[in-house]
Amino acid sequence: MSFQLDARTPSGPLEQRWEKARQEMKLVTPANRRKYTVIVVGSGLAGGSAAATLGELGYNVKCFCFQDSPRRAHSIAAQGGINAAKNYQNDGDSVYRLFYDTVKGGDFRSRESNVYRLAEVSVNIIDQCVAQGVPFAREYGGTLANRSFGGAQVSRTFYARGQTGQQLLLGCYQALERQVDAGRVQMFYRHEMLDLVVIDGRARGIVTRNLVTGAIDCHVADAVVLATGGYGNVFYLSTNAKGSNATAIWRAYKRGAGFGNPCFTQIHPTCIPQSGDYQSKLTLMSESLRNDGRIWVPKQKGETRNPNEIPEEERDYYLERMYPAFGNLCPRDIASRAAKLMCDQGYGVGPGGRGVYLDFKEAIGRLGRKTIEERYGNLFEMYERITGEDPYSVPMRIYPAVHYTMGGLWVDYHLQSTIPGLFVLGEANFSDHGANRLGASALMQGLADGYFIIPYTIGHFLAQVKPGAVAADHPEFLAAQHEIEHRTKRLLSIKGKKTVDDFHRELGKILWEYCGMARNAAGLRHALEKIPELREEFWQNVNVPGSGEELNQSLEKAGRVADFLELGELICLDALEREESCGGHFREEYQTEEGEAKRDDEHFCHVAVWEHAGEGKRPVRHVEPLQFEFVHLAQRSYK
Amino acid sequence: MKIILNIWRQKNSSSPGKMVRYELDKVNEHMSFLEMLDVLNEELTRKGEDPVTFEHDCREGICGCCGFMINGIPHGPERGTTVCQLHMRHFHDGEELWLEPFRAKAFPVIKDLMVDRSAFDRIISAGGYISVNTGSAPEANSLPVKKQCADRAMDAAACIGCGACVAACPNASASLFVSAKIAHLGLLPQGEPERDRRAVRMVLKMTEEGFGYCTNTGECEAICPKGVKIENIAMMHRDFTRAVALFREESKVGGAG
Is B132 within 8 Å of A131 when comparing Cβ atoms? Predict the structure, then answer.
């Protein structure tokens, strides 16, 4: 075994662990910080906050994003909110409760120490964002307002209308631009990371493609931080932005970084259903809508009446029926599976019977249209723009869609991957959310990692290495650069008959069918035959027009899809090997009599960490056992 | 339905561009405008032609990547909508459309419908922030903010930085964009200490980047996909005027110690 999976988790009382770890960390003195160069790839909540904070500390930061501005990162699309254990509502919240809800929501597949730290720093995040001028919703007295989210019985979610991600990202982007102005952060826009360079077992830099000129450049650093988001777009149709991709983490995986729990993907229950084959992406409707919207299907199979004409007694509010304690606010994996179950049984509504109603009639009657407008106005508008239907008068139709990936590169307590000097933040890492993420926790994790964790842990790493000492013409850099140039040439020279999107769509169909909301061994084995065939065909028959020395969006897509075609296989392999159901990973063979996920704590209470074993070789599965010292392992119940 | 597209094709920033005509026969009314362009690009790729370059990412109207002119209107004819959320049901069978990039001196064309909007980042970098290092923030509820102020700040902060306001303005002014940030931060008590400095630095930077002056035409407000209001520009002018009279650069004399 070549991996040393030392999670570096502190021991002792849970609430003292982070403080204890910080006390033991080495520091870099202010005068020495500018001698160290740190590369941050990605400029969303995790990357942007890390780059800004490391710049403030005085490190020499280079930040990369493939978009035209750091403000475009996909964190911007998060709608509903950010959790924090402030207990402003006096409703019984605490750091421990947020920790517990997160561990339970993740179906007991996350690390206790990490999750507790996340809950602990959540309160600092709100302070920081407010100080930056993030316009959170407020009460008439001027204090901050909260709303409820799934998987919690307290109101701990802070929000800025339905644009919380946008506002948090703009706060972090402004902090980043302030450092750009101060000369401590150098921004590289329209640059895509295409490889990681590892020298003597340590991450020493990256190779990028300038998306405007096509130039392949080497960038040297003393540490590399990846904050490149999730890989949900492997499914083709997802709520991710079109450009979101796995290339950075996949390249790092192939250079020796372990990949944790790749099969843990989150299917979000409330998205606008697909309307046709031309569809390019799916649009999420915030989970916050489940605060006031009631989900139902007709009791009659194949119902064709207008929903408003269906009387109360002929409606099945199935979440309220199945999970009375949490009702419409049960966690995402559970709500998604229930929707699929209803549709599979023939109760679905809309085209193809792939949809359920999300109805605001009762809430509008109780609170008035104005209140609903204030709370969800922009979401209702978005729904109307896309579907052409008015949700104030007709119930929304929703269906689950791929939204988030809990899996990602394995990191220890310091957020360092299995490659020393390579740190991974936010959705790109595997930590904190276990097998299912609770709503409003992604923003929390991204900012916790970037503002409050990496500044300490990277300092500890840098304090132990000498700055500089490698040049951009080191043979490893030149080799990586050469490999990329070769790969680009190869992609451009195939000139086959199918487009990149043809392959991507096909891959997405395989994954959605066999590794989506429900999985089984036979289906996964089938997918594991299909995907390599498709990959083979891609490299024989894809058509990538244009050249490599210009702006070429087809080439960008082709490189990303080539990586998805490899990652898709690993996802299925991981899903096949994990012979239990937990959170978003639902294996049909392992369920309770009531159809709930049935965990196998005896055999699978661990993180699966995959090691790349070379081209064409089966990757090696390692495990990091999960120990629960504070939370009792129980079957999740939201009834 | 059938749609005829005349699209501005330009290989790169240094070559001349021209309009090229394309006909699409099977456009579905539920498609978004960008999904229609996806279909066109798939066809062009199959024919071995260069697909049309256009910027896009979230396709939910929030990232601000997308945007071009449709028949002379930034983001097209629907109010309050980015082009990624514009659906074909708003067009009629056989309609002929002209697509061009946003035109402004400060937004050079990169390729086809894609322009360089990095000037916006440089304006924000000049002062569009509140200086507060990570870790130095006070407890969030220790500073109450009037709900009305928070709401108005949020209205201004809704700007997605797409640049449509610049493209719509006869002077290619970035005043709506710049004022949205000045208003967002200036309306909040947290933004007060740097209010003068922010107004001066951002407005001067806007001019330096080659954007024009505001002459109160109001086109920007009319086409803004996020409904950002021209009243922000009034606030910017007031803050700028006041700041020019009052603002002095920070003392150059070092602190004690």
Answer: yes
Burial (0-12, 13-18, 19+ Cβ within 10 Å), A324: exposed
Residues of A in contact with B117 (CB under 8 A): 68-69
Whether residues B103 and B160 share a domain: the answer is: no
B76 and B127 housed in the same domain:
no
Chain B nearest-CA distance from A28, in A, is: 17
Taking one residue from A and the other from B, the number of pairs with CB-CB distance under 8 angstroms is 215
pLDDT tens-digit readout, A60-118? 999 999 999 999 999 999 988 999 999 999 999 999 999 999 999 999 999 999 999 99
The CATH number assigned to the domain holding B122 equals: 1.10.1060.10
Partner residues linked to A217 by β-bridges:
A208
Give all domains of chain A, ordered by start, each with its CATH number.
268-402 (3.90.700.10), 483-620 (1.20.58.100)
**What pLDDT, on a 0 to 100 scale, did the predictor assign at position A638?**
81
| Residue B113 CB neighbours (<10 A) | 25
Give me the residue from B38, B62, B133 closest to A163, CB to CB.
B62
Q: Are A133 and B132 in contact (CB under 8 A)?
A: no
Is A132–B130 a contact, with Cβ atoms under 8 angstroms apart? yes
Q: Do B185 and A133 touch (CB under 8 A)?
A: yes
Chain A stretch 152-181, residues whose beta carbon is closer than 8 A to a beta carbon of chain B: 160-161, 163, 165-167, 170, 173-175, 177-178, 180-181
- One domain for residues B122 and B174: yes
Instruction: Give the tens place of pLDDT for each residue, A283-295.
Output: 999 888 998 999 9
Torsions phi, psi of A166, nearest 5? -60, -45
What part of A 236-295 touches B (C-beta under 8 Å)? 241-243, 275-276, 278-281, 283-284
Same domain, B8 and B104: yes
Same domain, B23 and B121: no
The closest of A567, A462, A410 to A3, measured between CA atoms, is A410
Q: Are residues B101 and B198 in the same domain?
A: no
Identify whether A560 is a catalytic site residue. Answer: no
Q: Look at A499 and B28 and tell me if their CB atoms are within 8 Å.
A: no
Verify that B68 and B149 share a domain, yes or no.
Answer: no
Dump pLDDT digits (tens) for B115-173. 999 999 999 999 999 999 999 999 999 999 999 999 999 999 999 999 999 999 999 99
CA–CA distance, A322 with A63 (Å, rounded to integer) = 47
When divided into structural domains, chain B yields a total of 2
* A82 closest CA partner among A14, A142, A171, A178: A171
CATH number at residue B49: 3.10.20.30
A351 vs B: CB within 8 A: no
- A141 → closest Cβ in B120, B126, B144: B144
| Whether the predicted interface score ipTM is above 0.85 | yes
Q: Which residues contact B148 (CB under 8 A, 6 or more apart)?
A: none
Q: Where in the sequence is the domain holding B193, given as residue range(s)?
A: 117-132+143-246
Smallest Cβ distance to A68: which of B35, B55, B139? B55
